[in-house]
Amino acid sequence: MTLQPALALVRAAAHLSSHVDSALARIGIDFADMRRLRAIGAADGGISRSELAATMAESPSQTVRATRPLEKLGWVEGNGGRFGLSASGRRLLESAEEIACPAAARWFAEHGSDVAVLGPQSSCRSAPSRC
């Protein structure tokens, strides 16, 4: 096994993230923020800092630093050591998904053969209000 497949995967992920970031810029968030909001919103009763850190593949302190601005903007609420989405956070997430889903689909349509190793892609409407 060589390092080349790992480097190609990282390069593809960075390119995809940049493409989706550009689309999401019009609502003031990036792909990482949207992923964070999705993780928080998917957890019934909120998500703990350690659970969110594991989901985002980051340290707990990095999780706090990255989530704090979302709290200050009123999209995320901290409650008893758990994070949850506020009503405005849910609305933002819905808007973000409506923007990110077609942006990601366009990227995969343009670069799909380059990342075929990732396996089949599901449609944008695989779950209610989720891409």
Detailed description of the structure:
- There is one protein chain.
- The protein is mainly α and 131 residues long.
- It has a domain at 25-110: Arc Repressor Mutant, subunit A (Orthogonal Bundle).
- Helix content is 60%, strand content 8%.
- The protein contains 5 helices and 3 strands, in the order H-H-E-H-H-E-E-H.
- The protein has a 3-stranded antiparallel sheet.
- Strand 2 (76-79) and strand 3 (82-85) form a beta hairpin.
- Helix 1 packs across helix 5 (87-111).
- The protein is globular.
Total number of strands: 3
CATH superfamily assignment of the domain at 25-110? Winged helix-like DNA-binding domain superfamily/Winged helix DNA-binding domain
Distance between the termini: 33 Å
Secondary-structure class = mainly alpha
CATH structural class of the domain at 25-110: Mainly Alpha
- Provide the low-confidence segments as ranges: 119-123, 125-129
Radius of gyration: 16 Å
Helix-strand pattern: HHEHHEEH
Tally of DSSP helical segments: 5
- Strand percentage lies at 5-15%
- How much is the average pLDDT? 86
Named at the architecture level, the CATH assignment of the domain at 25-110 is Orthogonal Bundle
Reported by name, the CATH topology of the domain at 25-110 is: Arc Repressor Mutant, subunit A
What share of the residues lie within helices? 55-70%
User: How is the main sheet built?
Assistant: 3 strands, antiparallel
Taking strands numbered 1, 2, ... along the chain, how are they ordered across the largest sheet?
1-3-2
Shape: globular
